[in-house]
Design brief:
- By secondary structure, this protein is an alpha+beta fold.
- It has two domains: about 5-120, Dynein light chain 2a, cytoplasmic (Beta-Lactamase, 2-Layer Sandwich); about 125-230, Arc Repressor Mutant, subunit A, CATH 1.10.10.60.
- The chain contains twelve helices and five strands.
- The chain has helices at about 5-10, 10-20, 50-55, 95, 100-120, 125-140, 145-150, 155-165, 170-190, 195-200, 205-215, 220-230; strands spanning about 25-30, 35-40, 60-65, 70-75, 85-95.
- The protein has a five-stranded antiparallel β-sheet with strand order 2-1-5-4-3, sandwiched between helices.
- A hairpin with a 5-residue loop joins strand 1 (about 25-30) and strand 2 (about 35-40).
- Helix 2 (about 10-20) crosses helix 5 (about 100-120).
Amino acid sequence: MCSCDLAASLKQTLELFHACTQLPISALAHNGSVMGRSGLNGEAELPMAKLQPYLEGNVACAELECGDRNSLFVCPICPHRGKMGLFVLGPYPEAERSGVLPHLLQLLRSLQDTCVQRQKSNPYCRHTSRAINYIEKNYHNKLSLQRVARHLGLNEAYLSSLFKQQTGQTFTEFVNLLRIEKSKELLRHSSASILDISLEVGFSNQNYFNRVFKKLTGITPGEFRRQSAQSA
């Protein structure tokens, strides 16, 4: 696992680990800043003085006493001991966790692997994924960035910026490309008129459909249909 994959899937790993174990878990960068946490509120304090030597070093794993008969377990975020920072498990009553730390570490690494694989198969964040899913289900209807943002409960400007950052396309570019790809299937396999196809995939009129189609493919819808028929 490379460090960029681990960083991208870190939040999901923390949430899943806490859900499985009900054990608080934090992720700290080497400068001591909190990269993420689950099971602890944002104001909960960790004994940074005790953790500092492990943040600065190249620690494998260690168990630390943190007062009130509680303990912490620390291990590197990167299983290959790359310098990404530390996972901090706990605090937890020492007596309750005796002998189970190896199993918790094994679970943590397994969840990391799972989350990294999910990240690779779907490189988009939750908001972008939900937006794309909504677009794919509703491309044939009237769509706007405002409507999708309202459906997702997001700020329109935020969704616009996030969508462009993650997909490399504006909202309109993404929708138009999807509609053109859907129209190609209809042009190949349907005898419907170009007007009917343009309306079926969500364009408001044939002239705009023709312009977008030629811009994205280099030919008109009619030329595409003829070429498809000749190559069949």
